Amino acid sequence: MFLNAVLATVAMEKIKEQFSNLRIAHRCMLTEDLAYLLDIDISRSEGSHLVAVSCSNKSIRVYNRETLSLLREYSSPPSLLSGVLFAHASAGLLFSACSDGTVKCWDMRLATSEPAQLFCGYPSNVFVSFDISCNDLVICAGTEKVEEDAFMVFWDARGCTNSASSRKEPLGAYSESHNDDITKIRFHPLKPNLVVSGSTDGLVNVFDISKDNEEDALLSTCNSDSSVSFIGWSGKDYWQVYCMTHEEGFCWWDLAQLDTEEPILLLCIPDAREVVSMENAKLQYLIGGLYHEKLDKLLVVGGMSTGSVHLLDCGTDGLSPVGSLRGGHSATVRSFYWDVADDSLLTGGEDAQLLLWKPGAVEKAFGKKMSMKSVSSVHQRVRVHQNPFQSKKK
User: Fold this and answer.
1) For 125, which of 62, 101, 210, 381 could close a Cys bridge (C-beta 3.0–4.6 Å)?
2) What is the pTM of this model?
3) DSSP-derived secondary structure letter, 146
4) CATH (domain of 310)
5) CA distances from 78 to 57, 58, 59, 350 (A)
């Protein structure tokens, strides 16, 4: 136990040093009509230097990750975007989920600005979340609730560049495990058959999609007691799941304990704003989280309405401050991507800025953009309410 504590302390000191050394290397100032930057993803293909962002004006912009110079732009009017993701193995393929009931595949190797393929949902589907399996074979998208139904829809993702604007119908759907909007979908980073979903019904469900039906596929149901805004995998072999809520709550479960007598709940914080202080000021919101595999640490990212970004250490005893970044954004930060391979950080916010932070960087003189005045499209779309159900697993 003593050795583990020492190793954990050393790991956190290293992360604290890395975070404190971050400085703004480049700043991309978007025009007023682009409004908020909602999601960020980077291409993980070897030798690729691409970053994609989705904006609240229904556009996707692709940049050079090293310089933040604009390379491509795609538009999806009149549909609202719900995320943007690169394929894991191909730097040229980019995906987005849309409120028109489609997931679009954009092929950056083609000159056209039209999607290379449409993954079409069922009638009345409005997609608000999606993800792609780690082997790029399966796409899953979550829908808003329509009447009594909320769906997780699945497609075969292979062959998306066979012909321009080709259409693919679903392989099938799950419809029994959530009873409200499915706000987040995340495939397991290593096991392509595992996927976790989060919903405004407060439930976080883990599925093995290799099973023949939805009932058999459901491995675990965890209850956050609030509307889920973010979910992720963490821990050894990524066998833990965690979530954040629209009420700034945080929950963390250990799935390795499912078949034991030990409780699977590692940590539950109904409202992080009440328990996390940053230099005599309360944390105002949570942005997301990431698992630092090399150092075996789950980290949480939060912020303040002034634009400062705060890194938190997550342990079974709670969330504790690690470091802060200031002087970058002038309004709420909505998205981030921390690349642990080179310790760089990308952040996007409601001030219409995309920032690249790097260790020891020196930024050229450039003024900050002021906060946008309109209401965030995130809050326009999400209905927050309490979950009436109790968890199936304690």
Assistant:
1) 101
2) 0.89
3) B
4) 2.130.10.10
5) 10, 8, 10, 21
Do residues 121 and 129 touch, judged by C-beta distance below 8 A? no
Does the N-terminal peptide bond of residue 78 adopt cis geometry, omega within 30 degrees of 0? yes
Does any domain span residue 297?
A: yes
Closest CA to 329 of 82, 29, 40, 84: 29
Cβ atoms of residues 78 and 93 within 8 Å: no
Q: How far apart, in whole angstroms, are the C-alpha atoms of residue 38 and residue 346? A: 12
Q: What is the DSSP letter of 229?
A: E
Separation in Å, CA 303 to CA 8, 83, 99: 24, 20, 28
Q: What is the mean pLDDT of each run of 10 residues along the chain (394 residues)?
A: 61 87 91 78 88 92 94 85 92 92 92 90 95 97 94 90 70 96 98 98 98 97 97 97 98 95 95 87 94 93 95 95 93 94 93 94 61 42 42 42
Chain center to CA of 342:
20
Q: Is residue 8 part of a domain?
A: no
Give CA–CA dist 67/354, Å, rounded: 11
Pair 244, 230: CB distance under 8 Å: yes
User: Is 158 part of a structural domain of the chain?
Assistant: yes
φ, ψ of residue 16 to 5 degrees: the values are -60, -40
